[in-house]
Amino acid sequence: MTKSISAQGFTLERDQSDLINQKLKRIDYADNLIVDLIMHVKEDKKYYFDTTVNFRWGANAHVTSDDFDFAAALNKLMDVLDQKVKKEKDKIQEKK
Predict the structure, then answer these.
(1) Above 80 in pLDDT, residue 95?
(2) What is the rounded distance in angstroms from the CA atom of residue 36 to the CA atom of residue 84?
(3) Residue 52 phi/psi, 5° resolution?
């Protein structure tokens, strides 16, 4: 899985980057199913996370979240992202 994380409107600090990488470990079970993960983080009074995951079989998942707290916005994003990845993984396993 190729990860691309970019920040807009602010500089992503080391602890924030580490937190993102730590949270992304939640979807490590699907590492071989995901081609790339593109995450854009924007700060404009709130933190806005905009993430796209592209799967091997051509499907993709697009997830967004926002919150005034960086960690809270990231947690919201990961909850939804984890569910979407599980759903896609289950779909593929059913077809086999």
Answers:
(1) no
(2) 15
(3) -125, 130
CA 86 centroid distance within chain: 13
Backbone CA torsion sign across 42, 44, 45, 46: negative
| Identity at 48, one-letter amino acid code | Y
- 69 backbone dihedrals φ, ψ, rounded to 5°: -105, 130
Confidence band, pLDDT 50/70/90 cuts, at residue 94:
confident
Closest by alpha carbon to 34, among 50, 7, 52? 52
pTM of the model: 0.91
Rg (CA), the chain: 14
Write the pLDDT tens digit of every residue in 3-52.
999 999 999 999 999 999 999 999 999 999 999 999 999 999 999 999 99
* Residues written for the chain: 96
